[in-house]
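can u do me a favor
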């Protein structure tokens, strides 16, 4: 009999929980298990778990009384140095189809999206923080590489926190609602990731050019690595 498997029991942010769900779907495909989706129950940062469950579009079927395997995320997928082994073309297409099955924000003028993780991450947060000096180098490179593209920087904080990134072709999109921010990353022609589950999930869904910033979740083979 096919084993049943679900991801549940978390209360952290949207990106971490969505990546957990993605890892479960990918692992079930690899192992030929049946994935049973459990909607988000609690969500960090005062976000609505129901709204974000609806946003990702994964169908909710009747949950059986007994599920063989229940986890917060699939560590085997998270720790893989070759995640394409699990995130196959078919798996990604399934996740994308679910995502686009529900209404999404209308995003305009979205050439290049850069995700800079701030908020709960600052210069004292070891292993997660990336300073503005790095992003200044990224922006200078992208302005030259894509002379006809505008750049949107998505982050949290105040405009003066990002003074060194200012340019006539750079717009700061700060403290924007989570659905608009996430879909902006998903739909950008060029996405520059942060060390973040939030932008990792967006990169999986994005069908265009991805620039990956090295961290513990390793990149898919087609993403650009060590570019800047």
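np, heres the sequence
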């Amino acid at each position: 009999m096919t084993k049943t498997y679900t991801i549940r029991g978390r209360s952290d942010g949207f990106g971490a929980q969505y990546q957990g769900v993605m890892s479960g779907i990918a692992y079930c495909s690899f192992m030929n298990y049946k994935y049973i989706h459990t909607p988000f129950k609690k969500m960090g940062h005062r976000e609505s778990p129901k709204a974000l469950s609806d946003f990702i579009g994964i169908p909710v079927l009747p949950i059986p009384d007994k599920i063989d395997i229940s986890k917060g995320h699939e560590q085997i997928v998270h720790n893989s140095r070759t995640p394409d082994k699990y995130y196959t073309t078919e798996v990604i297409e399934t996740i994308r189809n679910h995502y686009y099955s529900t209404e999404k924000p209308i995003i305009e003028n979205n050439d290049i999206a850069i995700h800079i993780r701030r908020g709960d991450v600052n210069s004292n947060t070891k292993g997660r923080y990336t300073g503005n000096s790095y992003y200044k180098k990224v922006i200078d490179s992208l302005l030259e590489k894509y002379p006809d593209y505008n750049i949107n920087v998505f982050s949290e904080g105040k405009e003066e926190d990002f003074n060194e990134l200012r340019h006539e072709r750079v717009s700061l999109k700060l403290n924007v609602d989570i659905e608009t921010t996430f879909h902006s990353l998903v739909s950008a022609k060029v996405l520059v990731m942060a060390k973040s589950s939030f932008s990792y999930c967006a990169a999986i869904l994005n069908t265009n050019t991805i620039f990956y910033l090295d961290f513990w979740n390793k990149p898919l083979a087609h993403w650009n690595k060590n570019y800047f």
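The longest strand covers residues 151-155. hope that helps!!
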